[in-house]
Amino acid sequence: MPSLRALAQARETAPAPPGNLLIIAVPKAPDAAPLPNVDAERAFLTREFPHHTLLHDARRESARDALSRHTRVHFACHATQNLVAPYEAGFVLQDGLLSLTDLLAQPPSQGELAVLSACQTATGGITHLDEVMTLANALHHTGWRHVIATQFSVWDDAAARFTELLYPLLSEQADPAEAVHAAVRILRDAYPNSPSR
Known about the structure:
Elements: H1 4-12, E1 21-25, H2 38-48, E2 52-56, H3 60-67, E3 72-76, E4 78-80, E5 90-93, E6 96-99, H4 100-104, E7 113-117, H5 135-141, E8 146-148, H6 156-172, H7 176-190
Parallel strand pairs: 1-2, 1-3, 3-7, 7-8
Antiparallel strand pairs: 4-5, 5-6
Helix pairs in contact: 2-6, 6-7
């Protein structure tokens, strides 16, 4: 959960112009299971957003640098979470973790939308329940206005389908929360016997 200061700051900051979409896609990271549907997410996003920056098989330094120059980002990769040491959470890139600490060290952002299509990006630790820090919160804390994240692990195919549903809904609806709700509702209706999908 973002701090009151971060929320107030985000509300006071005028929305940045849309700009191009940064796509951070890592379908196959070292020592991690392959994510075959990341390529489907990437293909969909590059078609939908002709003005995009693609970091395929992204590395930490290029991701940190590109984040500071974009107002929209879509992560399609693995993420890790350590419930005992939440600051060890991060996105799994080609050369290691883009960690929660890395995100917090970013300069203040005028980011408008971050979509974290990875497992447990909104899951915090269990040791300091009054100081929840997650990958999603780290982005909020540095100024990203809207962050769409996952509380639990997600299926690779469901994440790709969610992406295909979400972005058209975002262009139709002003409120990202309503677009997320509609996309989740469509997925739940498609898999009534598998609510965790």
